[in-house]
UniProtKB/TrEMBL annotation:
Keywords: Oxidoreductase. GO terms for molecular function: oxidoreductase activity, acting on the CH-OH group of donors, NAD or NADP as acceptor. InterPro entries: Epimerase_deHydtase (IPR001509), NAD(P)-bd_dom_sf (IPR036291), NAD(P)_dehydrat-like (IPR050425). This is NAD-dependent epimerase/dehydratase domain-containing protein. Residues 13-263 form the NAD-dependent epimerase/dehydratase domain.
Amino acid sequence: MENQSAVLIARRVCVVGASGRVGSWLVKKLLERGHIVHATIRNIRDPEKAGLLKRLPGADSRLHLFEADIFHPHQIDQAIHGCEFVFLVAFPTKPFSNDSERAAAAEGVLAMLQSVLSTCKGSGTVKRIIYTGSVASTSPLDEQGLFTRDFIDESCWTKPDAQIPHPSDYAKFYTSIKTASEELLTSYGAKEGELEVVILDCGVAGGDALVDSVFGVGGPLSPLTGNTALLANFVFLQNLLHSVPLVHLDDACEAHLFCMDVPLTSGSGRFLCASDYPSVEVCGSSIKGGSSKLTDMGFEYKYGGMEQILDESIKFARKSGTVKRLIYTGSVTAASPLDEHGLLSRDLVDESCWTNPDAPIPYPSGQTKFYTSTKTASEKLLTSYGTKEGENSSQLEVVVLTCGVVGGEALVDSIAGVGSILSPMTGDAPMSENLMFLQNLLGSVPLVHLDDVCEAHLFCMEVPLAGGASSRRFLCASDYPSLWDIMAHYRLKYPHLLVAEGPEMGGRRRITGGSSKLTDMGFEYKHSMEQILDESVQFAVRLGLIKDI
């Protein structure tokens, strides 16, 4: 496929939206193939965005920059003049402050498409438009939010009225306008019969890039970076599609070039562009891609597996060359000693313990299951990454701090984390369920004070990684009380505040911490279990969650 593309004659093409992650890489590949490229960016005087494109090989003789804003579509006309192919990549990426701005942007995007279609049709030179679509427009959910099929293909269209919990107003805008744009372009190509339209419904694009932006790749990296907004988008895709379709950025751009000459049986063609359809395990099953239209026509993915795409994404995140060490905040939920039958197979928890994804664990909620499975997968990916990179000291070092439940005072007015250990006094039912879940999962409720956690992160900036490996995993918990130990402390010190009693301990086994790796290297915990619990209570009083002690 690559050799076939390399011998094509040079064409004059237009890339609308050339400064972003996909657009800049597409310009790079077009220039490498010898094409003449008209590229639009919002500000041609921007030294960073314009300069990046001007420095590409072949740009001095075959790249022409045009200043254009998608909300002023007449500015795009000059860039289209004389071109055979138009790549529509541009899409608004900034969130909107109110509904009127959002509505205006939606109208603006569709007006831009209508304008470009009209200009291309009247140009006399444009043969085909290639639009960068999104898998967000291919949901198999029906109006009630139920999955009606067990695969995704090009016949799937996201229902505007489907009961989908969008994580943000922008996610709702993106999904609805991408879908409306594709429907408009598809109907135009089928109706007009003169101008050909190709839509590439791209999965989440991972891998390396020219621009220092995690837009797009931020979703797959969110379990590692801890970016809650991007993690919410990642979960949204899982709920929308029952999988998270992935494609390497280079494969996505190769597919754009491939579609310059792919034959169309009608005036338009819609192609799913994703090499893998993994699940983030929010649900028990996943929906796979049911389309091979693109590969049936001769296209080949070079980056076929999820692992390769994610590994390339991590390399992109650290390619600045200045980062020496990545310190990841893990969770003890990734260190369960339960076996595949849900039985405690040992009397202690240490760094060799990994939560078994097949263990019959009664999760209190889908979010808890997602958190546990994703934290486990993230820690495994990071530790294996360090091992694979070898002993070269120039490589990125990885430290994973597998942290216990964090208690104590905090700067932010939130009980996230500490809520579970406060649940016997707040009466919060979901938090009580989480506390019991931790006890069942780990055979204890590992605790650590917030200040100790942060001190451990600082300590791990300089701790030597012995043995030549570039990755280390450390359990970070100062005490391993059981749920009943916690209840006993509250009963002794705050009997008047208890609103809930825990279940009987019965014959349950106690599991203790079996690792001293962190303290063996010189780290010292400053806070005991009693201090952690007492400061958590004081924190809750300050927030008004429980009455004054």
